[in-house]
Amino acid sequence: MGNIKRLIRAEMWYLLFLLPGLCLFIFAVFVPLVMGARYSFTSWDGLSRTVHYTGWDNYVRAFSDSDLWIVLVNTFKYAIIVTVLVNAISLLLALLLDTYLKFRNAFRTIFFLPGVISIVLSGFIWKYNYAIGFPSLFGMFGLDISSPLGDPNYALFGLILIAVWQGIGAPMIIYIAGLQGVSSELVESAKIDGANARQSFFRIILPLIAPSITINMLLVLTGSLKVFDLVYVTTQGGPAFSTEVISTFIYKSSFANFQAGYGTALSMIFFLILVLVTIVQISIFRRREVEM
Amino acid sequence: MKKSMVLSLCVLLLALLLAACGSKNNDSQSSAGSSDPAASSPAESSAAPAESASEEKPITISFMHFKSDVTDGVQKIVDQFEAANPNISVDVQPVKYDDYYTLLKTKMAGGDVVDVFTLNAGAQTKLFVDGGYVEDLTGMPFLENFDPSVVAAQATDGKNYVSPVNATPIAMFYNKKIFADLGIEIPRTFDAMIAAGKKIKDAGKTPFALGWKDGWTLGMWIGRDLPSNTALVENQPDFFTKLETGAVKFADNPAARTMIQHAKQIFDLGNKDQLGVDYNGIVDLFAKGDVGMMYMGTWPLADIQKKNPELYETGIGYFPYPFSNDESLNKLEFNPDASLAVGSNSKNKEAALKFVAFMASKEGGDSWVKNINSLSYVKGASADIAPAVNELQPYFDSGEVYDSQVYIKTTIDWTNQFVQNLQKLFFDKATEDEVIATMDDWVSKNHK
Amino acid sequence: MNKTHIATFSIVSVIALVFLFPFYVAALMAFKTPKQTFDSFYALPSSLSFENFSLAWKASKYLSAITNSLVITVISVLLIVLVSALAGYSIARRNKPFYNFVFIVFLAGLVVPFQITMLPLYKMGKELSMLNSHWGIALIYGGFGVQMGVLFYAGFIRAISREIEEAARIDGCSTPGIFIRIILPLLKPVTATVLVLNALYIWNDFLLPLLYLQDKFYRTIPLQQYFFFGQYSSDLNLAFAYAVMGIIPIVGFFLLMQKYIIKGIAAGAIKG
């Protein structure tokens, strides 16, 4: 009997530990989400005081909206390229910095630095670099270049470059933390057993830092699928829709076109897509972690 | 059973948390107030309006505006008002134009009070009026300080919800030296302007400074070329009214084609990297003196003055944008800029109205001209803002002035959409027909 | 130093220079006048003038903005660390459906786009009078940050062996006791990570302060920055000066924390 009591008390502590976090979450994310979801069934324009319920109209409309598909393609193109590049480069840098290297703390700081400033600011700096800085820099060498942001064929890549520049820092820190958890004895003993650098990387290091990879992939992918500020301060979705992503599309529908109801319906669809992507990703990496 | 218990526990705790949040906040707010005397006085005044019967009681009104490019200038005008009304202080909140309406809308929908705010007369005003957020100003004595036609032009559904403030011509700046060197006359028709542009290009200079990286620069041009051609050349003044309901399409409007062709011609004669250089970039280019023409309002003048004073004083001219090939139609585009509205839920309406009245007075009007470098609508206010603008005086004197914006009576934001589609055309990603078809398709999705 | 080291060093150096270039431009802008920038974009300023900085300082209420940013960041980050360490512990040690469900909910919450919640959050803030207060916005950040925080803490605590805990439990130690005495000291490295990432996010966040802190007295650094950028042409050099002023404290913070992270992680690595 006393045993059960103690068990309940122990369980109670765990519940109590969970509660503050859960409540904050419910308050800041869940309740607003439910309120937002409600708007998605209305034809609210975002301003008027009366709200009309229109059922599933907004959702039906969204699926027949050809612009939505264009926008989704842009979004995924951007997010996948950014995720791959950011993870590859930050892992590479983490590996380089993990070896014996002069001034490695200074380098670490430098690579993290872009991630420290606000996107409003980096967007501004890069806009100026692209438009004036780079052309006049390359002009000194007789090269005639113009801003990628002004050409629909390159604008998205212009943004990806900024995102990579700014996005390296945090994943790199996580990779470094992961790599420092890899005991050097293990790598040394593999070396003694005749493993070359590539083998020890793929066979020993990579499996051991798998949790870091999971976290980084997850954070970078969902982060870049949600990209808003960067597009908003640099291209506003242009030129010729080439950088229009789902967030800016939602924003424009909600505010510029005065269709808050439709906008929230779009963001609910977006939310579902994100959940799907996350579940798929987690299950893939979980399985891989186990296999390794 | 267990699940529902967990759920109800959560709800209970959430309620507790919410209650706790509320009380915490009151604490922090009151402590913040007491530590900062400047912050506490407005809070007190708004919290206790019943006591403010005596005139000595200080009042704070909030004033949100979108002229954030001239924040300092607006602040100077406000300072002048505060000096004249020592018991009223104005909390000025400048917001960048791109975000202004979003923010204002969020505040209004959230039930927040903004005492005085800027609006663009027309579609934007109508939207806020329809939402019931704007005080009716019809018949207010300060409206008599404006020309009756101006007051009438800015009315919404026959009533005055906004008080006019300032206006700007939107026209072509030109580099006098380049024009003189190449023997170019001021073009009075569109074709003459393009011919002049080609001449400038052949001479190795840039004909047009475009700056179409920013959506608004191209949008501003589209939003004037198209309604001008629609209403005045094609005689469809109610085109945009019908567009709102779907009664007409861009395909039915030859002016849409004209505008697209104009855009392509101007784009081809633009500066290098037309969609990569922004507004600041082209003002720089123009100030350097290498560019023939720039379509713009008066706002870059102060900047040009700083960067190239010599050019500013004697080197720049200004001519009406010839949207058609009919000289008699090509009058000077003269548009309202900001107008002022009073929030219908304002608790300090009297003070708010005083503020609007000051802006409408001769003193306020002169102050706008002096501090903002733009023309005031107030009767008799000074009009001397820059040497280049004086070139437009004949058009004002002979009344050859028009406002293409009065034809745009729709809340559908078609300009931005057109901007993007034109950019496709510039890069051969769409044909003229495709642009028009896509636009019609998009508009049909946005009918009210 | 052998050949590989030299090669590595030069590769890393080149990448570093590329990374620093935009900062060089920002600093260049900050020290020059509009006229100088206009005349030549890359030329170094003729004299090292701090005029832009002093003008920006005067015009921007820098001190009040930085105080606000600091207070909000510190409160939010402390809240996040406390709350997510506790929740992360529960989730990591209780492998039961309910806890796993909560964990999934937190993860799902990470993907909720801000666009959905923006307007409701503002309405709630208004009704609960949370606008224009450091506490109000910190609670929202707490709710946002706890999701990622739990992910980090749960992951980290799962990797900690349970043996010591079980031994302590047999010795009669209660759950809070175990958490405070055994787990908490081990959490330093992950706490540093959570701290830094959240501090950066909160320090730089823009849209939420724009909605929540409309009163001048509560404006944060990015908000003030934004108002500077809003003045679009003539004050660009001032804006960059202000940007540089905004960068300095967060870079300083990062430099300080960086040492701590490395130390903490090294200690954690030995124990693990």
TrEMBL record, chain A:
Stored PROSITE patterns: ABC_TM1
Membrane topology classification: Multi-pass membrane protein
Keywords noted in UniProt: Cell membrane, Membrane, Transmembrane, Transmembrane helix, Transport
Gene Ontology biological-process entries: transmembrane transport
InterPro entries per UniProt: ABC_transporter_permease, MetI-like, MetI-like_sf
All residue ranges annotated as the ABC transmembrane type-1 domain in the record: 72-281
Subcellular localization(s) per the UniProt record: Cell membrane
Transmembrane stretches, start-end: 12-35, 78-97, 109-128, 154-179, 200-221, 262-285
Pfam families documented for this protein: BPD_transp_1
Domain of life: Bacteria
Record-stated family: Belongs to the binding-protein-dependent transport system permease family.
Name of the protein in question: Sugar ABC transporter permease
Native species: Cohnella luojiensis
From TrEMBL, chain B:
Biological process terms in GO annotation: transmembrane transport
Signal peptide stretch: 1-19
UniProt xrefs under SUPFAM superfamilies: Periplasmic binding protein-like II
One Pfam assignment: SBP_bac_1
Family matches, as InterPro entries: Bact_solute-bd_prot1, SBP, SBP_1_CS
Low complexity bias locations: 28-52
UniProt keyword terms in alphabetical order: Cell membrane, Lipoprotein, Membrane, Palmitate, Signal, Transport
Annotated segments matching region Disordered: 28-54
Transmembrane segments: none
Family: Belongs to the bacterial solute-binding protein 1 family.
PANTHER family: ARABINOSE-BINDING PROTEIN-RELATED (PTHR43649), POLYGALACTURONAN_RHAMNOGALACTURONAN-BINDING PROTEIN YTCQ (PTHR43649:SF33)
Protein name: Extracellular solute-binding protein
Annotated organism of origin: Cohnella luojiensis
